[in-house]
Amino acid sequence: MNDADKQQSEKMLKSGLVASVVAAICCFTPLLVIAFTGIGLAGLIGGLDYFLFPMLFASLGVVALALHIRAGKPGPSPKGIIAVLVVAFSGILIWLEFRYAIRISLAATALVVFYWLYLRSAKPQTAS
Fold first, then answer.
1. What is the Cα–Cα distance from 12 to 70, expressed in whole angstroms?
2. Which residues of 68-90 are buried (b: 16+ CB within 10 A; e: fewer)?
């Protein structure tokens, strides 16, 4: 991995983690409800979940992709699989009408953590 790839993966990882934390805070606390009510946009509160949860899953996808780039694994990029999982998690959550939002969000987070552990445990392949 060259320095440009390393810098890009570090920037992606930091951005993804910050976006994930911000989305999680906004999803699971009344922070945006108070802010939107305070500035007169209370009518938009009902639709926040339709934006925030997909944003959470997408930012977790960015974290997973950054971890893959950082690991320096040869082979195909997991971008397609990550995109499908982001859409699947978002679709399932919306289909279930946000009933299991915390469980589904924790499952998505656990999936990224397990992927990180897998990348750490697998030996990097060297060119022969």
1. 10
2. bbbbebeeeebeeebeebbeebb
Q: How many other C-beta atoms lie within 10 A of the C-beta of residue 1? A: 13
- pTM beyond 0.70: the answer is yes
Q: Which pLDDT belongs to residue 3? A: 76
Q: Where are the alpha helices (DSSP H) in the chain?
A: 3-28, 31-38, 48-71, 79-95, 101-121
In the chain, what are the domain boundaries? 3-121
Give the residue with greater pLDDT, 94 vs 25.
Answer: 94
End-to-end CA separation in angstroms for the chain: 16
Angle at 27 between CA 63 and CA 56, to 5 degrees: 20
Please tell me whether residue 72 adopts helix, strand or coil conformation: coil
